[in-house]
Structures are given as structure tokens and as C-alpha cells.
């Protein structure tokens, strides 16, 4: 198999006291050959019915054996008669082959060099932890070195490493958090098991006392080293099925790591909202993969959504509001009509400034729909919501909070100018039945808005003025207003990016920042609100964008103004 077909390869390496760095166990992915037109309907050689039994990965013995040179027990993983392991992914036909060494000479030299470097020169401080190295010719390596307790070894521990080798540098770098999390689980399992064996051996025969009382002689020292070197990893962990377990773990890691990184077709240039939504979706998928890996299951097929689908699911929380009976707000204009112009402007002002918006009432469906409309005013990265709760949640956890009617508001919150409370009071003549019959929300509920913030909201921010102009124009349909709101948010997010680059990344002073604000059109009437809005919206910038800016600055990029 050529190297360029290999997605990645995982290997367990060991530093032997007699033979130096050695590869103990290796798992590689073998992709099924692409059939030619003449072979379109032909079965794949060796693809037997038994290979497709069960779901996900199925295991069978490999019939071939690997030639071995002279090595001690510490350098050998599988016995000479052991055929190795093969796992077959029934969904894709990919086979995961595990043995002591790779089958192809090209891969053998690549893994051998990665093994030597990971246990000699390419180590992190403390000699235990992750590191990345490699080049285009010999491949790129993610390596995690660690120690295993051994009562007979020098220093009572032996040195191991797990390496993942791939020719794609970006693939490995993007997989760093995923690999680190799951490899640490494997390493911690090995270390904890070996520690129990170490403690039990020390209780029977404490080696430290034996060594202190023994007579040291240069003549017997080589023989002592030779005797202590030949301990295998299954012996150190007392795990009889260790290699089968590592094969399953490495096979799942290759499968899950490959499936989590896929290409996405974006509808035009990605907005900040799209980038944040993709980051959140990736984090959720990694959490799901983590749970599935811990339970020993296969990786679940992942559904990658388009930009419009991601944004719709964010606003409507995958249709959760539809499960509640009773009336609901249909649009931002509808919410404005129900609350009234003055109260809506006050509520929208608090939303845009980043203050905590609390809705308290007995109808969770109505509260959920109100939050759905209000969330459309903010970038996705600025939204932290707890839709309905039986207890108060602090502002640092959520800026949208729905509460049941009997939940008290803490004094420090009710007296704060950074929060607004909307009490949704049910009227006696209203009922859910009448709402289902088409009665208006105002005939069912009364909305009481309270806040200690005495700052007038009639001047700004500029964005709020433009939003109200669009909402008050009855000639514009709801869909047109929605697209207008998206354009306004994108316009102000571009201003946020400029201000972030200028003030946070370049570290300019107050005077220069004021000039930039004037250039952005954020000064004049409502200037204080505009600046406050820009600073709050900075928290909604995606990690991708911030990382790109910081990388560019560290790479020597100079600001355009210099």
C-alpha cells in the first residue's frame, strides 16, 4: 500500500534498556481498492460473508505472520505464532490491521523513525506529554510519551510512547485536541493498571530495600540489566488481552478521527455566525464521540448541515417551542406589536447591550418563542440562554433566562442596571383553549417590564434605530425584515472586527481608537451605546477568526496603518 493512501497510522513504542527504541504494536488502515469499470460488479477479494457479521467493526485473525529478529520479551508484543488482528468497518469496507510492525517496507521505515525520534530527541519537558514533529518526506507525527511503573526496572519505571503518523500536517494539527483527549484515556488506563501491579509486587518484595542491601559489582551489572529488561507490557499490567484491547482502541481512534474531519460546502463566504455554529457543532460531535468511545461503541454517522440549517436550528432550538401548547410570538414585528413601541425598544436595548434579559411566567412556550425572536438581534457567539428554569441563573451563565412564576429574583439582580425583568402575567379571562382558537396574546397575558437602568434609550445605539425603522415599515414583509436584520448584523460585525484588530491585537491607544470609531460611524448621537455594543459583540467573534488574527500578528504581519 503506498504511503499517500494511508490516512494515518497508530503505533505503541517502547524504549528497551538493551535494544533501544522499539515498535511494539502498530495499527494501520487499509482502504478497499476502487473498482475499475470492468470490475464494477465483482466482489472484493477476501471479502467473505463472515467479515460483514455484526455492525461497525468485526474482528478476525490475519493468516500471515511477521518475521522477527532477535528481541527480548520487553521488545515483543505478539507471540511468533500469533497471526495479528484485523477489524473490518462494515460501513466503508476499511480494514484496520494490527501487528508488531507495518506490512509495507515504506511504512516500516516511517514508523521506525517516528519511534526513535519520539523516544530520544523529540520529547517535551519532563519527558512525559504530547509533542508534534515531522516533515514532508518522512511524515508528520503526533507523539505522547509516558511512563509505566515496573518494580524491576531502573528508576522503577519504563518509557513508552504512542505515536500517530500521517502525511497530512493539517490533519494532525486539527486533530490535536481530539487525539490528546482519547490517547490520555488509554494511557491513564495502562498506568493505573500497572500501578496496581507495582504496588502488589512491592508489598511482597520491596525492591528498593533489596537493591540497597545488594552488593554492587561491575562484573554482574550487565547480567542484572539483562535480567530486568525482559518484562513485557502485559506482564506489567497483568492484562492477558492487552493487545486485543489496544487493537480495538487504536482502530476506533483511526475511524473516529477520520470521520470527524470532513469537507463542508459553504454557501458563499462564511459569516461569523456560521463559524461559531460550526465550532459548536464540532464540539458537540467530539463530546458524543468521547461518550461513544468510552462505551466501546462505533462512531455515529454525523450529519453536516448547511449554513442556513445551522442558523435555523440555533434560533428555534430544533423546534422545541412547537412542543408547548398555547400562543407564541411569530416574528420580531409581532413581539413589538404586543409589547408596544416603548417597551420593545427598552427590551431590545438591553439585549443589544449584553444585559441579562429575564422572562418570568407560567407559559414556557411563549417565553421560548420570545427568546427565539430576541436572539435574532445578536450574533450567535453572544447568545447564552437558559430557556426555562426553576431557579435563578447568574448573568455570566446566560443573558437570556426564562423562569417559572414563583422563582424569586435575587436583590443584587433586581437592583442592578445590567438586567431587565419581564413578568408575563396571565389574565383571568384568558385560557389556552381560547388561544388555540386564535385569540390574541394581549387578551391572555400582561407584560410588566422593570429595570433600574435610568439611561434613556431614545438616542441609540445606531443599530437599534435602523432595526426599528425596518420593523415599523409595514411595506416590508417579515422575510424582508429578517434579511435586513442579517445584513445589519453583518455590517456591525465587520465594525467589531476592525475595532478588535485595532484595539486588542495591535494594542493602539485611546486617541487612535477614537479616530477609528469616527471612521466606523460609531460616534455622534448614541456614541456611548455604540461603543458598548461593539465591545459586547467582540465576545461573539469566533475562535477561528481570533486565532487567525493572532497567528498573523505572531507571523510578522504589520498593520496596514503603519
UniProtKB/TrEMBL annotation:
One of its GO terms (molecular function) is GTPase activator activity. It comes from Oncorhynchus kisutch (Coho salmon). InterPro entries: FLCN/SMCR8_DENN (IPR037521), FLCN_DENN_C_sf (IPR044886), Folliculin (IPR021713), Folliculin/SMCR8_longin (IPR037520), Folliculin_DENN (IPR032035). One of its GO terms (biological process) is positive regulation of transforming growth factor beta receptor signaling pathway. This is Folliculin. Pfam families: Folliculin (PF11704), Folliculin_C (PF16692). Residues 30-55 are annotated as: Disordered. GO terms for cellular component: centrosome; cilium; cytosol; lysosomal membrane; nucleus; spindle. It is found in: Cell projection, Cilium; Cytoplasm, Cytoskeleton, Microtubule organizing center, Centrosome; Cytoplasm, Cytoskeleton, Spindle; Cytoplasm, Cytosol. Residues 76-542 form the UDENN FLCN/SMCR8-type domain. It comes from the Eukaryota. Residues 46-55 have a biased composition (Basic and acidic residues). Its main location: other.
Amino acid at each position: 500500500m503506498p504511503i499517500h493512501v494511508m490516512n494515518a497510522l497508530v503505533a505503541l513504542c517502547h524504549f528497551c534498556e538493551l535494544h533501544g527504541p522499539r515498535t511494539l504494536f502498530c495499527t494501520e488502515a487499509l482502504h478497499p481498492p476502487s473498482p475499475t469499470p470492468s470490475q464494477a460488479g465483482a466482489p472484493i477479494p477476501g471479502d467473505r460473508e463472515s467479515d460483514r457479521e455484526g455492525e461497525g467493526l468485526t474482528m478476525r485473525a490475519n493468516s500471515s505472520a511477521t518475521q522477527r529478529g532477535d528481541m527480548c520479551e520487553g521488545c515483543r508484543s505478539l507471540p511468533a505464532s500469533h497471526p495479528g488482528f484485523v477489524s473490518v468497518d462494515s460501513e466503508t469496507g476499511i480494514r484496520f490491521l494490527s501487528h508488531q510492525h507495518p506490512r509495507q517496507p515504506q511504512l516500516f521505515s516511517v514508523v521506525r523513525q517516528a519511534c526513535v525520534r519520539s523516544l530520544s530527541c523529540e520529547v517535551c519537558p519532563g519527558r512525559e506529554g504530547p509533542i508534534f514533529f515531522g516533515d514532508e518526506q518522512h511524515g508528520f507525527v503526533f507523539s505522547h510519551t509516558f511512563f509505566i511503573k515496573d518494580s524491576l526496572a531502573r528508576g522503577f519505571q519504563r518509557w513508552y510512547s504512542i505515536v500517530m503518523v500521517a502525511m497530512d500536517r493539517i490533519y494532525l494539527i486539527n486533530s490535536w485536541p481530539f487525539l490528546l483527549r482519547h490517547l490520555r484515556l488509554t494511557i491513564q488506563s495502562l498506568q493505573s493498571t500497572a500501578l496496581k501491579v507495582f504496588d502488589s509486587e512491592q508489598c511482597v518484595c520491596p525492591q528498593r530495600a533489596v537493591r540497597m542491601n545488594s552488593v554492587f559489582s561491575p562484573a554482574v551489572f550487565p547480567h542484572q540489566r539483562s535480567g530486568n529488561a525482559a518484562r513485557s507490557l502485559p506482564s506489567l499490567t497483568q492484562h492477558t488481552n492487552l493487545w486485543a484491547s489496544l487493537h480495538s482502541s487504536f482502530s476506533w481512534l483511526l475511524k473516529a478521527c477520520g470521520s470527524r474531519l470532513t469537507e463542508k460546502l459553504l454557501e458563499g463566504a462564511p459569516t461569523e455566525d456560521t463559524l461559531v455554529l460550526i465550532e459548536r457543532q464540532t464540539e458537540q460531535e467530539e463530546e458524543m464521540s468521547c461518550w461513544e468511545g468510552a462505551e466501546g461503541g462505533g462512531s455515529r454517522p454525523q450529519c453536516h448541515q448547511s449554513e442556513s440549517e445551522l442558523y435555523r436550528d440555533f434560533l428555534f432550538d430544533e423546534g422545541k417551542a412547537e412542543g408547548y401548547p398555547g400562543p407564541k410570538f411569530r416574528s420580531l414585528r409581532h413581539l413589538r406589536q404586543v409589547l408596544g413601541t416603548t417597551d420593545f425598544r427598552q427590551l431590545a436595548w438591553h439585549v443589544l447591550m449584553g444585559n441579562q434579559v429575564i422572562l418570568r411566567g407560567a407559559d414556557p412556550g411563549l417565553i421560548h418563542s420570545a427568546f427565539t425572536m430576541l436572539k435574532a438581534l445578536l450574533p450567535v457567539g453572544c447568545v447564552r440562554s437558559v430557556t426555562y428554569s426553576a431557579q435563578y441563573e447568574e448573568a455570566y451563565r446566560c443573558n437570556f433566562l426564562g423562569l417559572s412564576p414563583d422563582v424569586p429574583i435575587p436583590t443584587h439582580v433586581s437592583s442592578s442596571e445590567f438586567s431587565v425583568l419581564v413578568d408575563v402575567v396571565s389574565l383571568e379571562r384568558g385560557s389556552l383553549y381560547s388561544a388555540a382558537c386564535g385569540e390574541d396574546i394581549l387578551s391572555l397575558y400582561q407584560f410588566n417590564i422593570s429595570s433600574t437602568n435610568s439611561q434613556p434609550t431614545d438616542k441609540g445605539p445606531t443599530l437599534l434605530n435602523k432595526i426599528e425603522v425596518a420593523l415599523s415599515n409595514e411595506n416590508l414583509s417579515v422575510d424582508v425584515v429578517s434579511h435586513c436584520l442579517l445584513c445589519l448584523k453583518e455590517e456591525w460585525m465587520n465594525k467589531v472586527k476592525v475595532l478588535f484588530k485595532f484595539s486588542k491585537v495591535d494594542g493602539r491607544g485611546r486617541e487612535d481608537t477614537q479616530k477609528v470609531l469616527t471612521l466606523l460611524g460609531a460616534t455622534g448621537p448614541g456614541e456611548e451605546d455604540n461603543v458598548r455594543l461593539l465591545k459586547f459583540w467582540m465576545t461573539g467573534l469566533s475562535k477561528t477568526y481570533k486565532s487567525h488574527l493572532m497567528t498573523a500578528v505572531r507571523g510578522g504581519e504589520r498593520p496596514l496603518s503603519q
